[in-house]
Amino acid sequence: MSDGVIGGVPLTEGQWAGWAAWSDPHSDTFLQAIGRSYLRSDAPGRAQVALETRPSHRNRLDALHGGFIAAFADHAYFGALWAMGHVAQVNGVTVDLSMQYLGSGRVGSILLANVDLLRETGRLMFLRMLITQDGEPVAASSATIRKASTPR
User: Fold this and answer.
1) Residue 135: how many CB atoms within 10 A of its CB?
2) Domains of the chain
3) What is the overall mean pLDDT for the chain?
């Protein structure tokens, strides 16, 4: 479901109507390990990114793997920026990512990242998120994103 560009494809039917499905022009990137995500913005500087969890996301204790949750957080920041209208910044880079694990995630339930853009400067964006599952906190995160270079 890719049109050759990175970003969201609006959905009008089914469970995810009103959201956009993340689209990546490459079918063989690390994003395939994370899975399909869904994005929407509910207010300026705020967005949500949702992900359906699957068995490949678990650790040997049958909980969501911490490394997977961190990878989802990194991905969710860029999806959220797209949903907020900062489309060019999906080509930015993560400068700093901090994770705080608050609970154990489960396979099968949707992860929901609520993302806030805290501050934007000429070259940087500062964000935070809370990841929940069935209304319970799983992790919190903060990140600094370096904006994509502007073509000259």
Assistant:
1) 6
2) 7-146 (3.10.129.10)
3) 91
Burial class of residue 42, CB neighbours in 10 A (0-12, 13-18, 19+): exposed
For residue range 4-14, list pLDDT tens digits in order. Answer: 446 788 899 99
pTM: 0.91
Contact 91, 128 (CB under 8 A): no
What's the start-to-end Cα distance of the chain, in Å? 31
The backbone torsions φ and ψ at residue 30, rounded to the nearest 5 degrees and listed phi first, read -60, -25
d(CA 9, CA 115): 19
Question: What are the b/e assignments for 102-132, b being 16+ CB within 10 Å?
Answer: eeebbeeeebbbbbbbeeeeeeebbbebbbb
